[in-house]
Amino acid sequence: MDMKPNPIDVHVGQRLRQRRVLAGLSQEKLARMVGITFQQVQKYERGANRIVASRLYQLANVLDVPVSYFFEEISEEAANDDAEPQESLVGADALSHDIMAERETLELVRIYYSIENEQVRRRAFDLLRALSNRNAPSIDDIEDNRAAGSM
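The structure corresponding to this sequence follows.
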């Protein structure tokens, strides 16, 4: 019977991976920056190995985030102190995942925000929205709603 890593370790690992990809770092480069092997980074990101406090602090500094970043958006289930390792998920549970954890999503966000010209960035967003055939609001609609709500 396969045992699943602790949900908190998995969450911290996912946040590590998200930030690493958004920062444009490979596992190898991040590993060199903190003096560990890329295999260790892989294990951290999967939640297979727990990250000790001193290493988490070091990773936070390298990735330019507060240590608390790794614990943001943690689920109630993962935060439960009584959580015991569980059997590996199968079926529908294994298929449900956070799209924000996908490498393609993270790279898209990183590339999008690297577009310095705001007008070009807005047009890229509008193009992607049109290509998706979805009626998602445009950036202008989102900003108008934010401005109206902040008054």
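The chain has two domains: 7-89, 115-150.
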